[in-house]
Amino acid sequence: MLKSKPKLKIKRTYRKIHISFFIGSLGIGGTEKQLLNLINSLDKKKFKIDLYLLMKEKGDLYVDLDSSVRVFLPKYKFESILSHFLNFIVNYFRISKTRPEIIHCFLPLAYLMGGLIGILNNHQNIIMSRRSLNDYQKRFKFFPVRRIELFLHKKIKLIIANSNAVKKNLIDEGAPKEKLRVIYNGFINTKYNHKESRAKLKESLAIKRNSFVFLVLANLIPYKNHKLVIRAADLLRKLTKKNFKIIFLGSGQRKYKLSLKNMIKERGVEDHFIFKNSTKKINNFLKITDVGISSSLEEGLSNSLIEFISLGIPTIATKVGGNSEITNNRNGFLIESNNEEQLMKAMKSFMLDKKLQNKKSLISKNDSKKFSLNKMVENHIALYKELRN
To answer: How much is the mean pLDDT over the chain?
Structure first.
């Protein structure tokens, strides 16, 4: 009998999906953290990744970027409109040469530059991720940002919103419905550093052991509306003798920070507030936090709220943007925008009722499951594969 020939094993080679990401920098911000986590989580055996940073500062998160990622930096310093234009030309030729399969832009500057570069290169797979409501467009009085973005919306392949509120905002803006997807932000639920106890951490910040701690995890930008928290604290200290501290954790505008400090001094509530700059190591602050607050006047989807509920920290949030997709009256308190009376009552309820705090903590932890990093990454991978096919 003739022996059958052994089957030849054909080694299949997988061609990596080549993606070019555009963003201003990797500074400490919600969008920057999300992009960093996405890039670092993608399998480098399946994805070839380029990162275009458009600002002269790389940002504090840059050191955490996977070393396999190829980074393109601005060639010219940002000193004039001409330097912006020259960097645009440089990046145009970089994209022409590298020919990525997908261009993915995060934040307005990156969308304007990356989107236009992609269109001029006749690129078929341009994606934009919108991370906030479009209120920022109103700040550009002499530059037609809204018109340019609407033009880009109609030309690019897909638009990713990070909340249903942002999706609705985009539809109202004129973005084609068939191009819209929603992918929620994802949070890495890292374990606390147990080397230091909660009591010692409080002591290091000059906080009494029995003090109730509220944390506002937001950069010092006026629309984050820290002033609402100051007004509520002024009401609260008149109604309770319990010790409480409010930590403002974030960096930002010096003028705005000074106005906050002056307001605190004028109202005589200095003993209740602590200012700390943004840091990559926020676990020590989260560990001593009893309740998290988001007091924003506008919000796409608050990363701070996701971080809070992922760790079982109940929240108080203003009813703006996508906040109601995270915080509700089951796992925390949802209040009307800029309403210090409602904020004060919510703060007081948590301070005076430990059982209520514990109950909402458990619900928060359960509700956080839809905001996992793995789910966020998986949804992006599915989308990238869909574009390849």
So the answer is: 91
d(CA 219, CA 227): 13
Query: Which of 64-68, 74-78, 167-171 is least confident?
Result: 74-78
pLDDT at 208: 92
Write out the two tokens for 143. 């530059």
Cβ neighbour number for residue 64 with a 10 Å cutoff: 13
- Give the pairing of strands 17-23 and 212-217: unpaired
- Average pLDDT, integer, range 86-93: 95
Please give the domain boundaries of the chain with CATH numbers for all domains.
17-186+373-388 (3.40.50.2000), 198-369 (3.40.50.2000)
Tokens of 195: 């080397």
Give per-residue pLDDT as tens, 159-175.
999 999 999 999 999 99
Quote the CA–CA distance of 313 and 216 in Å, as a whole number: 12
CB of 303 closer than 8 Å to CB of 187: yes
Please tell me the distance from the alpha carbon of residue 56 to that of residue 60, in angstroms, as a whole number: 13
Residue 106 makes CB contacts below 8 A (sequence gap 6+) with 21, 22, 23, 31, 35, 129, 131
pTM: 0.85
Does the pLDDT value for residue 12 go beyond 70?
A: no
- Other Cβ atoms less than 10 A from the Cβ of 225: the count is 21
Class of residue 197 by CB neighbours under 10 A (exposed 0-12, middle 13-18, buried 19+): exposed
